[in-house]
Write a structure and sequence with these properties.
heterodimer; A: alpha+beta; B: alpha+beta; Muramoyl-pentapeptide Carboxypeptidase, domain 2; 5 strands
């Protein structure tokens, strides 16, 4: 049995395996597949609750992942953000010497969540400039609000 | 209109995100559908070879007690019910998993268990034993709840 606590190394290795087996396009195809099948709960949350759905989703998952983060929601400005001070997934890959991280491991976050949120009318921005330090910043804005202002 | 903010430290919580079982299940399913059953084996062997380096070293140095300690820790974290029996001479370890918390979580959340999912047990453990004095065999795998019997034993040279 692979424990859910061993998932990140398994996920990292899966990225490398799919790319080796085929190419980067196949890996992106896998991320699309995973987004469609796995992130149904995020989609349902945002369809029902808008940006508050993002808060509800990440408030649960990031606590379970024991992340080090600041999360902000401003419903008046229709803006939601997560400042990841230390990502437990990338952090784990960087800390374990015998594991070689997939070169752009954090790209999957960009692909998976963007695919759910943009069709729902949200602008999705992920700053990955500091992922080598297990840090990133996610900003989600309601496009409808942006057009009004 | 709500405006709220929260800051969490990793030390506030225990690392335990069961939905990762669902994501791994879809990884196995994707490989099976797009590259065939052999690709599932190849992937799990590659993962084990690269990830379980410390466990393989321990298995070679201290024997089956390393496997026992590894699974005892994992099953405790997962909240799994199991029995383990290590023979007095430490040449044989038998693990009975009564139900897989991974399979249960996947099903409880409305997802189908991927074909070949049981290889996450059989292939991974065979690869852990590869090039060590030990071998293993999984039997009685229950497709409904992921229960199994897993035996580790000394290789006949």
């Amino acid at each position: 049995m692979i424990s859910c606590t061993e998932f990140i190394p398994a996920y990292n290795e899966l990225f490398k395996f799919i790319e080796q087996k085929n190419d980067k396009e196949a890996l992106i195809d896998f991320w699309h597949y995973l987004s469609d099948k796995f992130l149904v709960n995020l989609k349902n949350e945002v369809v029902e609750n808008g940006l508050l759905g993002c808060w509800n989703y990440w408030n649960k998952t990031l606590k379970e992942e024991a992340a080090d983060f600041t999360m902000e929601l401003d419903e008046k400005e229709q803006e939601f953000s997560i400042t990841m001070h230390h990502c437990p997934s990338k952090g784990l890959l960087l800390e374990q010497n015998h594991i070689e991280p997939y070169p752009d491991y954090c790209e999957h976050c960009d692909v998976l969540y963007r695919r759910v949120l943009e069709p729902q009318g949200f602008e999705y921005t992920l700053d990955r400039s500091q992922t080598n330090k297990a840090r990133c910043k996610l900003t989600i804005k309601n496009k409808q609000k942006l057009h009004i202002t | 209109m709500t405006k709220k903010s929260i800051t969490q430290r990793s030390s506030n919580h225990t690392y335990f995100h069961k939905d990762f079982h669902i994501a791994l299940n879809y990884g196995i399913e994707y490989l099976y559908k797009n590259f065939g059953e052999n690709a599932v084996d190849e992937y799990l062997m590659q993962f084990t070879k690269n990830y379980h380096v410390p466990l393989k070293k321990s298995l070679c140095s201290i024997g089956l007690i390393a496997i026992k300690n590894h699974y005892k820790k994992i099953f405790k974290v997962e909240g799994t019910t199991f029995d383990m029996d290590l023979s007095k001479d430490e040449s044989k370890l038998t693990i009975y998993l009564h139900a897989s918390t991974a399979v249960q979580h996947i099903k409880e959340n409305g997802h189908k268990v991927a074909p070949s999912y049981e290889k996450t047990v059989s292939v991974v453990n065979q690869e852990i034993c590869k090039n060590t004095p030990y071998d293993c065999n999984m039997t009685n795998y229950n497709q409904d709840n992921g229960a199994y019997k897993l035996e580790f034993f000394k290789r006949v040279l």
